[in-house]
Amino acid sequence: MSSSSPSGSGSDLTERRGIPAAKFIQDVETYLSQSGLDPNSALAFHQERLQQYKVVEMKLLAQQRDLQAKIPDIEKCLEVVATLEARKGTGEALLADFEVSEGIYSRACIEDTDSVCLWLGANVMLEYSCEEASALLKNNLENAKASLEVLVADLQFLRDQVTVTQVTIARVYNWDVHQRRVKQATPTAIAAADS
Q: Which is one GO molecular function term here (predicted)?
C-alpha cells in the first residue's frame, strides 16, 4: 500500500507484515486541522485505503484457500508413504487407484519398493526413499500449517483495519454533514434575529 498517511505522521502507524494499521479518529475536527485536509480529501484518502485493504484481503483469502486445499493433499501423501513403508518386506503387493488426469484413474499393482516419486509442481517429480519422502512431507505439512496460522492472523488484523477505516469514513462524513447544517442554520438565525 503506497499511500502515505494524510496527517504526515506515518511513524505512529503500526503494521503487520506490510499491512498498515488504521488509526481511529477520536476527534474529527482536530484530525482535519492537524492533517490539513478538508473533509472530501480525508474521505477520499480513507476510501482509497479501504479499497487497498479489500485488494489485500482478496489476495490473502486466495492464499488461505490454496493452503486449505494443500494440507489434505500432503496428509494423504503421508498416509500413502506410511502404508508403503508398513508393507515393505512383507512381499504383499498393494493395489492402488491413481489419478492420471482430472477424472481419469488407473489401477496399479505396487510391489515391494524402497522409493517413491513426489510431484513437486512446475512439471517436476523427484524420486525419494520412503524415509526421505516421509520427512519432506512432514516438514511441508508443518510449514503449511504454520503459514495458515499466520494467514488467519493477518486476515483478522486486516478485518480490524477495515472496520476502523469504515468507522472513520462514517465519522468524517457525519461531521461534514453536521457542519454544513450548522452553516445553513446560522444565516437563517441571524436573519430572524434582525427582523
A: tubulin binding
Q: What is the pLDDT of residue 87?
A: 86
CA–CA separation, 20 and 107 (whole Å): 52
DSSP state of 12: G
Task: Over range 74-86, report the average pLDDT.
Answer: 92
State pLDDT tens for residues 86-118.
888 888 888 888 888 899 999 999 888 889 999
* Residue 94 CA: distances (Å) to CA of 58, 91, 119: 43, 10, 20
Alpha-carbon distance of 38 to 55, in angstroms, equals 26
> Do 169 and 46 form a contact (C-beta atoms < 8 A)?
yes
* Residue at 8: amino acid letter: G
User: Residues 107, 100, 137, CA angle at the centre, nearest 5°?
Assistant: 90
Structure-block grid coordinates of residue 45:
484518502
How confident is residue 170, by pLDDT bands cut at 50, 70 and 90?
very high
Tell me the per-residue pLDDT of 111-159, one tens digit each, with 9 for 90 and over. 888 899 998 888 899 999 999 999 999 999 999 999 999 999 999 999 9
Q: How many CB atoms lie within 10 A of CB 30?
A: 10
**Hey, which bits of 6-158 come out as E strands?**
15-16, 19-20, 94-101, 104-110, 115-121, 124-129
